[in-house]
Amino acid sequence: MNFSSFKHSSGFRGVAVGLTASALVMSAAVLAQGADAGHRSQRIIGGTEVANGAHPFSVALLETGHGSARDRQFCGGSVASPDVILTAAHCVAGATSNELEVVAGRTVLSDAKQGQVRAVAPEGVVVHPRYAKNRAYDVAFVILAKPLKGISPVKLPTAGTDALIRPGQKATVVGWGNTDSNMGNFPDRLRQVQVPLLAHDECQVSYPKGYDSSVNICAGAEGKDSCQGDSGGPLFRTVRGRQDPLQIGVVSSGDGCAEQGAPGIYTSLSSAKLWKTLDESAKGREIKEWLRR
Ligand code: ARG
């Protein structure tokens, strides 16, 4: 597939600023995001800057090419193992290995000295087998051509447990996505925001269609949310008595950003069904074995 349709389908940076080479493609993407286009928040999405080296499992997906990673970043992801990146299916579905690159261990996108850049292995894009049929299974894996060095993979929850996603608890989401859904502003430095986890019932009220409680969670409050460009990135939290954070979700979708009554929708990594149905493709089974899920 050609690259513009890849971006088009990926929800690539919804709001374009300035006349970059991809401005046309990006405005096409704005039109494509029908559901998102109706509501535009007036406010900043409530995050703060991340210090260099914090949340080292957080990665950026880049389109291959020349120029700053800041101009090439289109989604987030996380390190699931030294050579497997976890992201959203809508970020990479239809993309081929040579269209993508991953940068890990970098906080400031334009700082080429930070972190490690990796190519993607041939046939290294593995989308959840149920994604095409049901947009709810919005998760994919990107296999790197060469493993990352010295970055600990993020911990994942035990499938089929819900202790980590009890409503009212807080989690953190990070990304280089839009910080102002009215104007469009894409930061160079990684940002984070704390969002409350909501009950499935509430999520269902906000999204009568498009929310599947067996594979999704939703989180956020007015003024606090992930947004375009954050997709694929991690939603994570710490638990008492454990040092390392656990990644409970993957940024997937939402109606606008940070609006009242329209929380962000995440793919739930606690979902037993999400991991079980990964078996429906040979590549999915392989990934599961690598990650020992
Ligand atoms: N689909 C968006 C992207 O491609 C992520 C949207 C998240 N929206 C939200 N309100 N939390 O980056």
Give me a quick take on this structure:
By secondary structure, the chain is an alpha+beta fold. Helices cover 18% and strands 26% of the residues. It folds into 2 domains: 3-38 and 57-144, Beta Barrel (Thrombin, subunit H); 163-272, Thrombin, subunit H.
What key attributes describe this structure?
six-stranded antiparallel barrel; binds arginine; single chain; seven-stranded antiparallel sheet; Thrombin, subunit H; 8 helices; 293 residues; alpha+beta; disordered N terminus
Report what the structure shows.
By secondary structure, the protein is of the alpha+beta class. The chain folds into 2 domains: 3-38 and 57-144, Thrombin, subunit H; 163-272, Beta Barrel (Thrombin, subunit H). 18% of the residues lie in helices and 26% in strands. It has helices at residues 3-10, 23-32, 34-37, 69-72, 89-92, 200-206, 272-276, 282-291, and strands at 48-49, 58-63, 73-81, 84-87, 100-104, 116-127, 140-144, 170-175, 191-196, 216-219, 234-237, 246-253, 264-268. The protein has a 7-stranded antiparallel β-sheet with strand order 1-9-8-11-12-13-10, with no helix packed on it. It is globular, with a radius of gyration of 17 Å. Mean pLDDT is 87; it is low at 1-44. Residues 11, 177, 225-231, 251, 253-254, 257, 264 line the site of arginine.
| CATH-defined architecture of the largest domain | Beta Barrel
Average pLDDT level: 87
The helix/strand order is: HHHEEHEEHEEEEEHEEEEHH
What is the number of helical segments per DSSP (H or I, 4+ residues)? 8
Highest CATH level, the class of the largest domain: Mainly Beta
Bound molecules: arginine
Q: The CATH topology of the largest domain is what? A: Thrombin, subunit H
Helix content: 10-25%
Number of strands: 13
From the N-terminal CA to the C-terminal CA, the straight-line distance is 31 Å
The CATH superfamily of the largest domain is known as Trypsin-like serine proteases
Please state roughly what percent of the residues sit in beta strands, choosing from under 5%, 5-15%, 15-25%, 25-35%, 35-45% or over 45%.
Answer: 25-35%
Spatial order of strands in the largest sheet: 1-9-8-11-12-13-10
Shape: globular
**Rg to the nearest angstrom?**
17 Å
Number of domains: 2
Secondary-structure class: alpha+beta
Poorly predicted spans: 1-44
Major sheet details: 7 strands, antiparallel
